[in-house]
Structure formats: structure tokens, C-alpha cells
Amino acid sequence: MWNKLFEKMRWIAFPIIAVIGLLIIIDVPSYFRISMYTEQYLGIYLSMVLFGTYIANPYKKGADFNALDLILALSALSSGLYIAFAYPSIAVNMGVVTTARTIFGVMAILLILEGLRRSMGISLTMVCLVFLLYTKFGEFLPGILHCRSFTLPKMVSYIYVDPNSLMYMLSFGATVGVAFIFFGQILLHYGGGKSFIDFALLFCGKAQGGSAKTAVVASSLVGTITGAPMSNVLLTGSVTIPMMKEAGYPPHMAGAVEAVASSGGQIMPPVMGIAAFIIAETLGVPYSEVALAALIPAILFYLATFVQVHMEAGKMNLKMIPPEQLPKAGEAWRRGWFIIPPIAVLLICMFNLGFPAAISAILAGAVALPCLALKEENRTHFLKQFVDALRECGELIIGIGIVMAMAGIVVGCINASGLAFNLSLALTRLGQGNVLLLLVCAAVASLILGMGMPSVAAYSLVAILVAPSLIEFGIPAMSAHLFVFYFSVISNITPPVAVSCFAAAPLAEANPTKVGITAFRLAIAAYIVPFVFCFEPTLIMMGSPGMVFINFLLCSYAIFAVCIALSGYWQNKVSMLRRILLCLVSTVILWPTQLLVNLVGTVLLTILLLPDARLSFSKMQERHKAKTGANLA
What we know:
- Helix content is 78%, strand content 0%.
- The chain has 30 helices and no strands.
- It has helices at 2-25, 28-31, 38-56, 67-92, 99-120, 122-137, 152-161, 166-189, 192-204, 210-226, 229-247, 251-264, 274-283, 287-316, 329-336, 340-352, 357-373, 376-379, 382-417, 419-430, 435-450, 455-465, 467-472, 477-490, 499-508, 512-522, 524-535, 545-567, 576-590, 595-632.
- It is globular and about 80 Å long.
- It starts with a helix and ends with a helix.
């Protein structure tokens, strides 16, 4: 009985949650001349997220729902609605701790912890709990961990209602998160995912290793609109992984390619993950500036992946995708043209017209709907698909919302306790006189904090704990935040807790650890390039166009050589001695020094690569002659 009741509740509630989220973004009350605090909107959002979490997740996976779940779901509604109704009074008396605020605050924090445990597992819950306990009892700890004392009501009140705590992180889920989830689900539910794969096959399918290159392109395109590596793996991997295995790639390689490409979607402009919008908000710059800064590192990331899958295909002499499995250009365009106008509208609104990202995404989704209706196969069940898209949108909203609530609690704990300042000071002292050591410590901290955690929550943590120490040491603010952002994202593919690899492994029928190690190698650029752009800001578009272009070419050449060294193959097998030399000379190019030294390194690298380059050129000539002869015949 309870299971059927909760199923009906989800069927009704999830689309309503999505609709309310969209109405909040476009500020419907203002059209009726009703003014509201932003925090009142966020209170409604919090109540929806917690209610949705409890009707979607029983006490234990696989267990039946019961009366307690219903009580918790209704209690969750009250914990958010209190803010929605009482915030005008709270704003006037922010520093006054009241009994009602303490009761509802404790209720909200406990419900968030339990909701987090049900939906995301015990690890994230324990992270949140540790920060709460630290804030309350940190006054008894020595050294840099010592923090000022708090009474429980004061601590709860700060976390619950202060705009720089829970409300701060919820605002990203309630605006950018809702809007881009809506946009993505509209495209995906009407065949956008299939269209991305068709276009990727069209551009890459005829090349050697075309199946893996198709996976890289398709997963990166879908990743830009889903913003969630694990979801992206499950969405595109079911198509691309079997395709790679059929072409001859080993199962662990197929899984690793999909995991890397899906994770890379979050760092690929123009539409990156939610964390990129948090960077823009934190630095007080337009999102377009963040996207532009991230462009070259993202290109290098995918260059490294492309080169390695190409070399693996050559090393194993893999077969091409059969021509009959490739879509025809006209057919691919006929089936997928509808994804072009909404994406164009999104980019124009964000980058040309300067609209807020959330409004841009909603406008793009609105433009997508009439375009989608023009497709004959969509018209049959158009309304049903729209409701299904809203339902899935609501489900994803509560998923990202509970994570943002957890991140908000942690941010509040860090701000209240002063841990960010203490840790920043400790890291600065540790790296005093050695910037590279400081960056290594920051990278390791970002990877550890991000393991097993959604990228947006991981970035929110490390941006507060680690980025300030990098800025204090003279590294540009944009470089510092992109540095920790990159390592937060690639924690998804970094062993031992590589969650994207664990998602890809069952689809590939491969060992998760082996998939993780291979993914680490394929994504090598994501581990190298952040260090480079901290020393050489031209790689994030800070500098003259000429130097930006020169350093981009030098870095691309070095990354290309490193990938050859890691693969151990170009046109022939590369000896171990030459692989070591390629890595050493590439380091000379990548290391921040005089341009003349970099150019000398480039000459040495060319000498090392010259034998294979000649062989590659000869093979190209032979293929061209054979093709010309066949055409003449």
C-alpha cells in the first residue's frame, strides 16, 4: 500500500517540482507586483528538495516505504516553508537567535543529513557530519585546527538562515541547476542524445579508432548539457562502449574512454558544469570570461584523449567501423537539426546578449520545444514526452539539490569556524619558497576531498579551503579557481575512488580498477595542464594574443609527445629509451622558463619524433595514391 502511495506521489510531485523551480527562476510573483526576498524562494526550493528526497528514497535501498517516510517528507516541507514565510522577520533580526529558528534549523540539518544518506550514501553524510562536529567542538582542538566556540543555537541559526551558508549554495541549484537540467532533459527526451552520437559518428566514424573518437565527441557534447559524469556515462556509454568493444578495443579501454570523455564534458566550454557558474559568482566576473579561460585547457584535455585512442587503434591494428553502420550526412541532419537552434539561442543569450545563465537556458528550452514538434516521430507522444521530461527534471533537481544543501552546510561550517583561513595559512607556510610544492599539496587535497563526491560539492569545498592559499601566494585568482576546479572534476576518474570508472566498468564488463588506471593515463593532460596555466596564464587567455597562440602550440606539441610516450606507439612501437626522452624534453617545454629554452626543447622533440613523422607522411602518400587510383578506375 505504502509503495503504491509513494509512487503516485512521485508521479505527481516530480513534474510539479520542476515547474515550481522554473517559475521561481522567472520570478513569477514580480509580475503580480509581489516582492519577495531571494531567500524566500530558496526556502520553497529547500522544502521541495527535501520532500522529493524522502518520497524517492526509502530508509534503505530495496526496502518498502512506510508511515515514518511520509512523516519525514511532510516535516521536510515545514523546514523549508518556515524560511519562505518568516524570512522578512528573520532579515530584520538576523543576529537574534530565536527558539523557532533553532528548532526548524535543527530539523532542516537533520533532514538534510538523513536525506543525503538515503540518496547519496554514507560517505557524503559523514563528511558533512565531521564539519558540523568540528564547528561545534573545534574550540578544544590545538594548533591550526582550533576555532572559536559556538553555542548550538547560534551555530544552527548561522548555517540555516545566513545568506553566506546554506542559502548561498542552494541558490546555484535553484537557478542554474534547475534551468540547465530542464534544457538538457528537453533535448534528451526528444532524441537529442541520439543526434549527438549521429553527428559524432559522421565526423569521426571513418577514422582509425573511429568508435573511440565517436565516444569522446558524443560524450563530451552530451556532458555539456547533463553536467553529471556518472549520468553521462550511463546515458551514452550504453551505446558507445559496445561500439568500441566491437571495433576491437579491450573492455577496460572502452570503459576508460567513456569515463574520461563523460567527465571532460564539465570542463568543456561553452556550457560547463554548475561549478563553473560558481567560479564566475565567486570571482565576480561574467560566465563568458570563465568559459573563455577554460577553452585552451579543455582543448588540450581532448587532444590528449584523441591522440591516445588513435595510437591504441594503430598499435592493435583495429578495424574501422563498417560503412553500413555510419549514418548518412543527409539522414543525420534530418534527424538532428533540431538541436542546433536551441544551442545557438543559449550561446547568443549568454555570450552576446549577456542574459543570466539560468534565463538563457530556459529561453533555449522554450525555443527547443517548437523545433522538436516539427519532427514527425516526436509529434505522436509529444505531451507525454514533455511530462516525462519534467518528471525526470524534477528527479534530477532533488538529486543536485540535496548535494547543494550538503555543500551549503559545509560552507557555513567552514566560514563560521575560520577553517578556510587556518588551512590557507598552513598551506602557504608549507609551500613558502616553493610554489610547485604548494600546487601539489592543493592538487592532492582537491583530489582527496573530491573522491566519491559530486564535482560541484567537491569544488565548493576546495574553493574555500585551498584556492585562497594559492591566491595568497601570487597565483592569479582565475588560475587558482580553475586549478582546484579541474582536480575536483578529475577526481571522478582518479583511482582508487573513481566513481565514473565504477559506473563505466559494468557496461564494459571490465575490472573497475583497471578502468580507473587506464582513465588516469588517458586524462593525463588534465593532471599536467593546470600546473602549467598557474605558471603560464596565457593558457587561460591572460596575455597578448600572440603569446597565447605560441604557448598554446608549444603546450599542444608537448602534450602530443607525452601521449605518444604513454601509448608507446606512433607509426611503430616506440622504445622505452625514446619514451623517457620524450617525457623529459616535453617537461622542458611545459616548465615555466624563457621562450628560447622552450624553443630549444621543441627542436629536440622534433628530432625525437622525426623518424615516425617521415613514416607517417609516407603512409599518407600511399593512401592518397591508392585512393586516387581507385577513383580513376
